[in-house]
Write a structure and sequence with these properties.
mainly beta, six-stranded antiparallel β-sheet, six-stranded mixed β-sheet
């Protein structure tokens, strides 16, 4: 029998409540959430999928996993309401430093494993052999064949099969779709308070546009500006970014942008907040913000129309990241077109609604885009090619009078494109993965030169230390401290797990 809730002393003034009359229908509202291998952090039910959404169907031929004929249909939030016919549901159970993977519906040959490190070793086993895990050092989903042998699972694009390899990155990475249980309701009979999202990271993942939220988090005001009748602040948290997290590969060389080390860039979550003018006038740049209440106006590039801001009138150390056209191409490991430079270079990936400095932006009067400077003298000796488009709707000058071929630097808000229409990496085509919104671009923002364009560090050697301080040229099993020494006499250290 339904029970009717009453409004009593627990109800708060000036708080919105919604009528939800709940007769629970178990199993309703089930969905699948697409995740990169690096985001697998809990046990549960998953489907093994390709980047374009084809799923492993459970059949293995000659050691290669086969895929479904149809694909998952994911929305802009990477969610799907159903799986394609024939999808093999896999249960992940914690084991060792990763997971055992098994399928239901059979008592024999139910555990997925790799029989070796080469191609064609994917098999079903009667009993658990070892465990699967995400290899952070290689950036790949992997199987621990033996203590000294690891097989890497990738997608062979020609026929969308799932194959094991002896090294990571041989082909395309695998993805997963996590099955998330839901609930449906009918016969609405009670009153409940609207759900609250407590952190900026959670808002970016679980928020619903048009709903009211209170974001309780450790945030800093990176930038404040006004445009038209709108008053904005741009805030960032201190948590790891939920999307577009980038890191250099083992083979990448480091590349400084005007003296800024990209490998040290902060990678956090960002939000654009519009405020009433009375709130805007109280908040200053670099203030610490502990709570923002308002309506979520956009989830992908998180934006909120706020009615309340709780802040501390103290300053926090903050400096924006500095980007050039290459950062907006969406690839963090980039090779130039000059055959004399065979190495790849690390370029950090911006985050949605990030406030940043933009440099080395050469204006093209024909298409209105900004390009990386061409190779001239020591500038851009690697012959990188990249470009990005701009939107002047937030700029201090509506239509800046720019000169074709001049190079500019400016402050900007970077917005991610939900669905990139063209793969523009390593070409002179403008990026379709990000759109740059200049904030202070005008005719006077001309740069006179390109600094540090060839500042990629040369690696002299790499050593590994275990937790007892023992040094080795090869990584130990478990936790290692990797020390990289460069030819300029500097060194860097990083914790890696093998």
């Amino acid at each position: 029998k339904p029970e009717y809730a009453t409004i009593d002393a627990t109800a708060k003034a000036n708080t919105t409540y919604y009528a939800v009359f709940a007769t629970l229908k178990q199993g309703a509202g089930e969905k699948w959430v697409k995740k990169a291998a690096s985001k697998i952090t809990e046990a549960g039910v998953y489907a093994l999928i390709t980047e374009n959404g084809k799923a492993f169907n459970g059949e293995i031929k000659s050691g290669h996993g086969q895929s479904t004929a149809k694909t998952f249909v994911f929305d802009k939030n990477n969610e799907a309401t159903s799986a394609p016919e024939g999808t093999c549901e896999l249960t992940f159970v914690k084991k060792g430093e990763g997971y055992s993977i098994n399928r239901d519906g059979t008592n024999i040959y139910k555990y997925l494993y790799s029989d070796g490190v080469g191609s064609g070793n994917l098999k079903w086993a009667v009993a658990e052999q070892n465990y699967w895990y995400y290899d952070e050092t290689k950036g790949s989903w992997a199987y621990k064949v033996k203590d000294t042998e690891t097989a890497y699972l990738n997608v062979y694009n020609t026929n969308n099969t799932f194959r094991t390899y002896y090294q990571a990155g041989s082909t395309s990475p695998v993805y997963f779709a996590q099955k998330v249980a839901g609930a449906g309701y009918a016969d609405f009979t009670t009153i409940v308070k609207a759900a609250e999202v407590t952190t900026l990271a959670n808002l970016a993942v679980n928020g619903t546009e048009g709903k009211e939220y209170t974001v309780n988090d450790e945030m800093v005001v990176a930038k404040k500006f006004q445009k038209g009748d709108k008053n904005y602040i741009v805030v960032k948290d201190a948590a790891q970014a939920v999307r577009n997290l980038s890191a250099p590969t083992d083979d990448d060389k480091f590349f400084n942008i005007n003296g800024n080390k990209q490998e040290e860039y902060a990678q956090n979550n960002w939000m654009l907040v519009s405020l009433p003018v009375e709130l805007y006038n109280q908040v200053n740049e670099k203030n610490t913000v502990t709570s923002i209440t308002g309506s979520l106006t956009e989830k992908f590039n998180v934006a909120m129309e706020a009615t309340k801001v709780v802040f501390e009138n103290v300053t926090t150390d903050f400096a924006p990241n500095t980007y050039c056209a290459l950062n907006f191409m969406g690839e963090s490991s980039v090779k130039g077109n000059n055959p004399a430079y065979t190495s790849s270079y690390y370029f950090a990936t911006p985050k949605a609604n990030e406030y940043a400095n933009v440099v080395w932006a050469v204006y093209n009067g024909t298409d209105g885009a900004f390009y990386l400077p061409v190779h001239q003298g020591s500038a851009n000796a690697q012959e990188f090619k990249a470009a990005f488009k701009v939107d002047y709707s937030l700029n201090s000058v509506a239509t800046p009078e720019l000169v074709n071929g001049d190079m500019y630097s400016f402050e900007a808000l970077v917005k991610e494109v939900a669905v990139a229409t063209t793969d523009a990496k390593s070409t002179s085509d403008a990026s379709t993965k990000f759109v740059v919104y200049p904030l202070n671009l005008e005719a006077g923002n001309v740069s006179t030169g390109v600094n540090d364009v060839n500042s990629a560090k040369e690696v002299k050697g790499v050593s590994y230390f275990n937790m007892m301080g023992v040094e080795s040229a090869q990584p130990f099993d478990g936790v290692n401290i990797m020390v990289t020494t460069y030819t300029d006499g500097t060194s860097s250290a990083a914790k890696v797990l093998r």
